[in-house]
Design a protein that fits this description.
This protein is of the alpha+beta class and 162 residues long. The protein is built from 2 helices and 7 strands, in the order αβββββββα. A hairpin with a 2-residue loop joins strand 3 and strand 4.
């Protein structure tokens, strides 16, 4: 059976150090939450397959025209700005948790990426960048051919030995 205790402020702490630590933790948590409202960096997933690298960035409520995507010196940079649109009076908001403002994310690319053929698409608030690999960087399979005449007597002998 699980026992649930009610927390009652200072009664829960056994010494002043615990109380002091809790106050500092609360202050840092609040400061961290407030800083999330002023600066932001969109979440990004990057994966690779045989032919390309794919970058997906969460950019809800972004105007795709406000995005600046560049590749310079093997550095992919995504820049943009999500503006806070005041469709209602600022005093009418009960809570504002989403981040607004300018952002920039940069990622180093390997020399294997063909930067001339990068494609960008924006759908349902997700920016998808497809970065194809150069032909010389794509894996190549080399088939081994087995000569039927050279191995035939050895295979027949091995089959007869069984």
């Amino acid at each position: 059976m699980t026992l649930i205790n009610r927390w009652e402020g200072q009664r829960g702490s056994s010494n002043p150090q615990d109380h002091f630590a809790r106050i500092f933790n609360d202050l840092f948590e609040r400061a961290g939450q407030e800083s999330n409202l002023t600066t932001w960096a969109p979440a990004v997933d990057i994966f690779e397959n045989e032919h390309e690298l794919v970058v997906k960035a969460d950019l809800p409520d972004m105007d795709p025209k406000a995005l600046d995507i560049r590749v310079e010196n093997n550095l992919l940079t995504i820049r943009g700005e999500r503006k806070f649109e005041k469709k209602t009076n600022e005093g009418d908001y009960l809570r504002v948790e989403r981040s607004y403002g300018s952002f920039a994310r940069s990622f180093s690319l390997a020399n294997t990426v063909n930067s001339e053929a990068i494609k960008a698409a924006y759908e349902n608030g997700v920016l998808t960048l497809t970065l194809p690999k150069r032909e010389e960087a794509k894996p190549k399979q080399i088939k081994v051919t087995v000569s039927g005449t050279t191995n035939a007597p050895a295979m027949a002998a091995a089959a007869g030995a069984k």
